[in-house]
Amino acid sequence: MRMCVGREHSIFGEPRELLTQVWVREGYLEYRQVPDSDPARYEFLWGPQAYAETRKQQVMAFVLGVRQRALRAFPLQSAEAAREEDKEA
To answer: Residue 74 and residue 83: Cα distance in Å, rounded?
Structure first.
């Protein structure tokens, strides 16, 4: 995607605004301060809309495809995603 903080992207606009405002407002991400962090640090978590529309298996398959890695390269995450799929079935 070639996105850099502080530089406008031709499709997505400014990345920081996209992450911290647009996707947070739409419920795809939660943006919060890491407890007891000094100086303050922030983290992104999946929001309710992201959980409603995607599964970890789908995200992992996409990321692994982009990075050209096999699912077995991440056994803990793979097992966690499989357990969640079983719970939802």
So the answer is: 14
pLDDT tens figures, 41-83? 999 998 999 888 888 778 777 777 777 776 667 777 777 777 8
Instruction: Give 31: exposed, middle or buried? Use CB within 10 Å, 0-12, 13-18, 19+.
Output: middle
**Which has the closest alpha carbon to 19: 49, 45, 53, 52?**
45
Listed in order, strand segments (DSSP E) in the chain are: 29-33, 42-46
Q: How far is CA 68 from CA 46, 61, 82, in A?
A: 24, 10, 20
CA 37 to chain centre: 21
